[in-house]
Amino acid sequence: MEEWLEPFMEYLILERGLSVNTLESYRRDLEHFFQHLDPDGQHSLSPVKATSIIAYLAYLRELGRATTTVSRNLASLRSFFHYLVRQEIITVDPTTYVEAPKVEKRLPKVLSIHEVEKLLEAPDVSTAPGLRDKAMLELMYATGIRVSELVAITPVDVNLSSGFLRCMGKGAKERIIPLGEVAQQALLQYITEGRQEMLHHMESSALFLNHHGKQMSRQGFWKILKKYAQTTNIHKDITPHTLRHSVATHLLERGADLRSVQEMLGHADISTTQIYTHVTRTHIKEAYVAAHPRA
């Protein structure tokens, strides 16, 4: 069964167009599963049964893995065994009747508008790195794109004259997202005044560069975000996804329709976007309790 891992990975790349990060998760989950079934590496894997899958999921829970991690592992196994059935390598899918653990839907953590404003004003725009940081933060808050999408942007993806951003999301799906005037101005200033200095006379197809003149990494942006969160004394655990959550919440609070926000964020399923309606209702209730004399 292990010998089908590489063909399966090729299938995921060619047929489903999954991102590099998703592919790495699939590989890691499946290799861990194989190791659990055959710890000595003797390649003595017998046909996998549903009981083997259930036992493995229980093993992950014993290790203290989060429910979301256990669910993701089951999803990886489902995809793999579906593939084996389609290829007629096996006749029975052992994951068919295995139930995924119930994942408690937690409301995403968001920043207030005041906190976002403090964050966006933090970079020192008298320097090239500051212009870059300002442009990245303004762009993320203007569009709600993922950090992986942010660092992959090229200069040709930005149309400042029309006020649109071209973004390649999960599954190589293209989105065209409008840009606000503030984000356009920050991008223009970075492109005309900061990016050339960041290049250090080298060439790069990436829009956002690190201090070596190479493409900014996700980890690099995460560190930048953490730095500004500390300097502005925002006492919340801020991640790149926090900004994405904040964009969606602030849009819905101000009357944006759910379908438009779904398209903007690139959610395949509108139920993913609907979680933000619960966040906005929570904020309304908090405001009511704080302000109404009879609350």
What does this molecule look like?
This protein is mainly alpha-helical and 295 residues long. It folds into two domains: 2-86, Orthogonal Bundle (DNA polymerase, domain 1); 113-291, hpI Integrase, Chain A. The chain is 57% helix and 4% strand. The protein contains twelve helices and three strands, in the order αααααααβββααααα. It has helices at 5-16, 20-37, 50-62, 67-86, 113-120, 128-143, 147-151, 181-199, 218-231, 240-253, 258-265, 270-291; strands at residues 158-159, 164-168, 174-178. Strands 1-2-3 form a three-stranded antiparallel β-sheet, with no helix packed on it. Helix 3 (50-62) runs antiparallel to helix 4 (67-86) and helix 6 (128-143) runs antiparallel to helix 8. The mean pLDDT is 86.
Brief overview:
This protein is mainly alpha-helical. 57% of the residues lie in helices and 4% in strands.
